[in-house]
Amino acid sequence: MGIIESMRLDGKRIFVTGGARGIGKSVATAFAEAGADLAIVDVDLAEAQKTAMELAQSSGRKVIAVQTDVTDPVQVQEMVDTVTGELGGLEAAFCNAGICLNVPAEEMSYEQWRKVLDVNLTGVFLTAQAAGKYMLAHGGGSIINTASMSAHIVNVPQPQCAYNALKAGVIQLTKSLAIEWAKRGVRVNSISPGYMATGLTMNSPSLQPLIAQWNEMAPMGRMGQPKELQSICVYLAGDTSSFTTGADFVVDGAFTCF
């Protein structure tokens, strides 16, 4: 088998949290194109169903939608049970759901801090834990967590202390899980995207004034496209990355190099 054929994901069952739009949708598209069956997991069921239908029609793969609040451990476990029941198993998970609040630290309320914490770190833990428990009992698998270049630098000019701190936590969580499960067949890695030109970012009134400044600061002079995260995620979800665990892959156009 050649390298291209070995990168395919035929026979894999994968869930993608935050999969209805943006980075999640783009990576889910690549998973389906590579031959995987999918669960689009999102708190927005209508949008998840729309994405699932689109991918099923374009790829011919089985794609389901599952509504889940990743901050609720009961819902997360029910999601994994639904995914493994309807798809027949689980070989990979993309724990991608996240939010960002641009609030100055001195003005951030406890509720705002907890909101970012609950989604960006606790949510990643809960979904990775539930996926890992299933994989440990069923021969192994691969978990991919979405961190951020904000785990490596402090973004300017927008204030986002909670996002930065908790994305850094995702990387350390990833390494910790990778070590715990390394000899038991479950690999855990993270990706750290730079500024990505998702629909939500490009259409956000609060972020639009910052885009020109970000591009001026960026070594490549532009934001990344969600599709530019597809290949690394397909690699990590598949068997060709069998010796890759505990790693963080920065995909930021060299933004964090200075």
From TrEMBL:
The keyword NADP applies. Coiled coil: none annotated. It holds the Pfam family adh_short_C2. GO terms for molecular function: oxidoreductase activity, acting on NAD(P)H, oxygen as acceptor; oxidoreductase activity, acting on the CH-OH group of donors, NAD or NADP as acceptor. GO terms for biological process: carbohydrate metabolic process. Keywords: NADP, Oxidoreductase. PANTHER family: BENZIL REDUCTASE, L-XYLULOSE REDUCTASE-RELATED. Belongs to the short-chain dehydrogenases/reductases (SDR) family. This is SDR family oxidoreductase.
